[in-house]
């Protein structure tokens, strides 16, 4: 039995490690995910939906009228949200903006996860959400699916905090609601 326990400890070094070193490993894992995201975003071509969204946003910047000069069935807020990326240079700017929004969402989600988990659990939840936001669907960056996943994570955290009668700072609630409303 001792041999099995010893092997289990060598396979899972983070379970008995110093909490500060665990957090460093989680930061390194998150940095690795960001690196993979940037590599994948530069290699995998953007999908048709992403290019169409940027095309419509570029048309709006050129003064064309949505639903009159540009035929589209999606709501206008979706294209207005792509105007900064179209203004700043298209797809590469959308990759960076998506990364910034993802980090804001992960920071807010981490604040909510802190109410329920210890440091290891909080970081595990953050990394799980980061995988879903950064690595699952790289070719379709900035789509509603990623925004919905982020919104659901934030709303679920707020709902769970309310059910458990946990005190959530007002700024965290307002910031999570504003980011999730995008």
Question: How is this structure best described in words?
Answer:
With about 180 residues, this protein is mainly alpha-helical. Helix content is about 75%, strand content about 0%. It contains nine helices and no strands. Helix 2 runs parallel beside helix 7 (about 120-135), helix 6 (about 90-115) runs antiparallel to helix 9 (about 170-180) and helix 8 packs antiparallel against helix 9 (about 170-180). The N and C termini lie far apart (about 55 Å).
Q: Notable features of this structure?
A:
9 helices, globular, 182 residues, mainly alpha
Brief rundown of the structure:
This protein has helices at residues 2-11, 19-43, 48-61, 76-80, 83-88, 91-113, 119-135, 144-163, 170-181. By secondary structure, it is an all-alpha fold. Helix 2 (19-43) runs parallel beside helix 7 (119-135) and helix 8 (144-163) packs antiparallel against helix 9.
Beta strand count: 0
Give helix and strand order, one letter per element, not per position. HHHHHHHHH
- Sum up the overall morphology in one term: globular
How far apart lie the N and C ends?
Answer: 53 Å
Task: Give the integer mean of the pLDDT values.
Answer: 84
- Quaternary form: single chain
Derived structural class = mainly alpha
Radius of gyration: 20 Å
Helical percentage: over 70%
């Amino acid at each position: 039995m001792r041999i099995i326990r010893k092997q289990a400890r060598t396979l899972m070094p983070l379970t008995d490690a110093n909490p500060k070193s665990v957090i460093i490993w989680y930061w390194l894992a998150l940095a690795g995910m960001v690196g993979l995201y940037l590599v994948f975003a530069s290699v995998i071509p953007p999908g048709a939906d992403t290019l169409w969204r940027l095309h419509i946003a570029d048309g709006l910047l050129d003064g064309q009228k949505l639903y009159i000069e540009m035929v589209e069935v999606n709501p206008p807020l979706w294209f207005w949200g792509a105007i900064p990326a179209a203004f700043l240079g298209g797809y590469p700017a959308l990759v960076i903006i998506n990364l910034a929004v993802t980090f804001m969402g992960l920071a807010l989600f981490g604040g909510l996860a802190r109410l329920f988990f210890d440091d290891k659990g909080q970081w595990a939840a953050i990394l799980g959400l980061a995988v879903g936001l950064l690595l699952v669907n790289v070719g379709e960056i900035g789509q509603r699916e990623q925004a919905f996943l982020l919104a659901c994570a934030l709303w679920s955290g707020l709902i769970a905090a309310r059910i458990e009668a946990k005190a959530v700072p007002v700024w965290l609630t307002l910031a999570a609601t504003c980011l999730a409303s995008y």
